[in-house]
Amino acid sequence: MPRVPPAGELAALRVRVAGLEEQLAARDAQLEASQARLAELAEQIEDLRRRLGKDSSTSSKPPSSDSPYTKKPRDRSLRGRSGRRPGKQPGASSSTLRQPPEPDERVECWPAACGADLTGAEVTGVVRRQVFEAQPPPRRRSGPPRRRAACRDPILVPRCRG
Questions:
Q1: 122: Cα within 13 Å, side-chain hemisphere
Q2: Is the pTM of this model over 0.70?
Q3: Is 151:157 a contact under the CB 8 Å cutoff?
Q4: Looking at residue 127, what DSSP letter applies?
Q5: CA atoms within 13 A on the CB side of 137
Q6: Max Cα–Cα distance, the chain, nearest Å
Q7: Residues 81, 82, 83: CA angle, nearest 5 degrees
């Protein structure tokens, strides 16, 4: 059987419960006010983000109003990849410019980055390079052909002779 508190203790408990209910009601009101303020601020943030996202390409603003500190994204090509590999067709013969065993001319190159004399220095490695000099194409002269014709129209004759 539950214990029944005395009347004085029961009255004190009722006063305490009433105080706690008042505190709870005040906190509920405070929570509702905070949630309303939070919704208002979220709406304001969304509006600011929308404004920040606008530039001359997404609105009627002039290009001079764009920020100089933000980079515009590059336009990507809408063309898809074909799937073919680059280079010659399979099975076709290749043509590589091979280095001859003896070149036409040899040039000795010594590194001179430090400015020191390297005349008697030990050679630590040799690298072969080949330079191909393209021959200039032969000169050709061409021009429009010169044609002559006699004008037989009596009205245009004075204009054709000039």
A1: 1
A2: no
A3: yes
A4: -
A5: 3
A6: 140
A7: 95
Checking phi first, is residue 43 left (phi over 0); if not, alpha (psi -120 to 50) or beta?
alpha
Q: Strand locations in the chain, DSSP E?
A: none
Per the structure block, which two tokens stand in for 132?
């191909």
Closest CA to 54 of 42, 70, 41, 39: 70
At residue 162, the pLDDT reads 44
pLDDT tens, residue by residue, 69-100? 877 776 777 788 888 888 888 888 877 777 77
The rounded distance, in Å, linking the Cα atoms of 122 and 125 is: 9
Question: Coil, strand or helix: which one is 99?
Answer: coil
Question: In this predicted model, what pLDDT tens digit does every residue of 113-155 receive, in sequence order?
Answer: 676 777 777 878 877 777 777 778 888 777 766 666 666 665 6
For residues 108 and 127, give the distance between their C-alpha atoms in angstroms, rounded to a whole number: 11
Which amino acid is residue 64, in one-letter code?
A: S
Q: Which residue has the higher pLDDT, 126 or 31?
A: 31
Helix (H) or strand (E) holding 27: helix 7-52
Q: Which amino acid is at 8?
A: G
> Cβ contacts of residue 19 below 8 Å, gap of 6+?
none
